[in-house]
Amino acid sequence: MNTKVLFTIAAGLVLSTSSLSAQATDCATTASIAYEHAKVRNWEAAEGPLWKVRKECPTHSVATFQFGKKLLEAKYKKATGAAKTALGNDMIALWKERLQYFPAKTKVGDMHSDIGQIMYDNKIGTKESQFAEFNKAWTEDKKNFSSPKKVYTFFYLLVELQSAGKKELQDVFNLYDGVIEKIEDEESKKAKTISELTEKEESGAALTSKEKKRLKTYGKILNNYSKVKAGVNQKLGELADCKNLIPLYTGQFESKKTDVAWLKGAAGRMSAKECTDDPLFFKLVEALHKAEPSAKSAYYLGLLALKDKKTSKAMEYFNQSAQLETKASDKAKVYFKMGEVMKKQGSKSKARSFYKKALANKPSMGICYLRIANMIGSSANACGADKFRKQAVYWLAERYARKAGRIDPSLKKTANGLAANYKAKAPTKTDIFNNPEITSVKIGCWIGETVKVPKL
User: Fold this and answer.
1) Who has greater pLDDT, 184 or 8?
2) DSSP of 238-273, one letter per residue?
3) What is the pTM for the complete model shown?
4) Which of 144, 262, 393, 408 is least buried, going by the fewest C-beta atoms within 10 A?
5) Of 47, 38, 36, which Cα lies nearest the Cα of 67?
């Protein structure tokens, strides 16, 4: 190869390298300008350079798509009609591009559930295609499918498709179980933190600004999940009533009586809907215990023993169920049931013990705090040496009632009403003023706790 040809090739390589280098420099400069504007939410100034980077050098940084999403969301909130739908389609396109260029930095659950919600909100595509997006998020990345609103829409679409004859009733029940489990898992995580921060606050320690923000945010999230759970249960409605469950499971029983997963689901749903008086429930429990003696079968045998007024036997089965149960939320339900039985028997100390065990396994189970508050409040006259100390019991009852509302927003109205009632029965400011030597009250009998006297 002669010298002239070699020189031509070398020159071409230099020019090509220089061109790529210049393009990379231009991308970095344009991206820097776009990102700086985006950081202060100056979307009008950010839009031009941001879309330039997106088009000409999409692999430059995932920040292009992160800021792009925020930009489109800001415009989407203000848009109406056709403009809103168009922006919805733009958001979907942006998500897909991000997945194309940054698959490792894109959460499938977040992406597909977001796309499904945008499609649903703007009537883009059919209900089947909307449902398919949510279902992909649910089956491939449930961990990052956590938005309360999206969880509800997902379930709503399935019920609608079932009503139209495009999905089976069993599909609805299966998803219901999964959705409720997801909601309760998320609730427990948030409620545990709220409970810990509340305990810290009540001890007199000051919360940091970060902890205060977290307490407020988690409270809102719990409130949203509470609404979603109520909405899901309402949407399920009559589909899960005994009149539908009994014929459905009766028809499936012979072919499914050795299917442990099916037996657990059927018995669980009939138990939840209080269809336990029907002979089918006994058949389900008997078959389940025969196929796989477990926490679930022991629990249902306990229910049947209660029905026959064999309380001691029922508690044996429940205890066995609690010991065998590996899932925290289900273990909590067993302990709650045991607490209910003991409360009905008048064994308040034992009942409280079981309620606290339930809370240890499911921190969002506010009903346990309400039950404890009720038992403490009803014991005021029996657990104090004098009037002041008897009335001081209501401060403790109030504290438990308020805890119930904090960790379970669905109980907030009831809990706050009960707390206000207890507060009204507690010592007044005059009582506190007249007893300055009393700074705390150690409550006796079965309660055995100490309550601080509020400062004037």
Assistant:
1) 184
2) GGGSHHHHHHHHHHHHHHHTT-HHHHHHHHHHHHHT
3) 0.72
4) 144
5) 38
Task: List phi, psi (to 5°) of 273.
Answer: -95, 10
Degrees, nearest 5: CA angle 160-153-138: 105
Amino acid sitting at position 27: C
The answer to whether 426 touches 394, Cβ cutoff 8 Å, is yes
Please tell me the distance from the alpha carbon of residue 257 to that of residue 292, in angstroms, as a whole number.
Answer: 11
Query: Which residues make Cβ contacts (< 8 Å) with residue 364, sequence separation at least 6?
Result: 184, 187, 188, 190, 191, 192, 222, 407, 408
Rounded to whole angstroms, the Cα distance separating 258 from 251 reads: 14
Residue 288 burial (CB count, 10 A)? 25
How far is 134 from 150, CA to CA, in rounded Å? 8
Distance of CA 83 to the CA centre of its chain: 33
Identify the CA nearest to 395 among candidates 437, 431, 344, 364.
Answer: 431
CA angle, corner 234, sides to 223 and 400, nearest 5?
40
How is residue 265 written in tokens? 């689901």
Strand boundaries in 194-234, DSSP class E: none
Return the SS3 of 365: coil
**Identity of the residue numbered 34:** A
User: pLDDT (tens digit, 9 = 90+) per residue, 399-445?
Assistant: 999 999 999 999 999 999 999 999 999 999 999 999 999 999 999 99
Q: Give residue for tokens 């907030």.
A: 412
Spatial CA neighbour of 124 closest among 168, 160, 76, 92: 92
Structure tokens at 337: 């049931």
454: buried, middle or exposed (CB in 10 Å: 19+, 13-18, 0-12)? exposed
Task: Specify the pairing of strand 450-452 against strand 440-442.
Answer: antiparallel
Residues 11-27, mean pLDDT to the nearest whole number: 53
Query: What would you report as the CA-atom Rg of the chain, rounded to the nearest whole angstrom?
Result: 30
Cα separation, 419 vs 397, whole angstroms: 7
To the nearest whole number, what is the mean pLDDT of the chain?
91
The two three-digit tokens of residue 332, written as one number: 């909590």
State the number of CA atoms in the 13 A half-sphere of 212 facing the CB: 5
| Residue 293 backbone zone (phi > 0: left; psi -120 to 50: alpha; other: beta) | beta
Q: Cβ contacts of residue 241 below 8 Å, gap of 6+? A: 273
Residue 2: what pLDDT? 54
Q: In which residue are the tokens 């956590």 written? A: 146
Segment 114-137 shows an average pLDDT of 97
The answer to whether the beta carbons of residues 191 and 407 sit under 8 Å apart is yes
Instruction: Report pLDDT digits (tens) over 202-245.
Output: 888 999 999 999 999 999 999 999 999 889 988 887 788 898 89
Amino acid letter for position 343: K
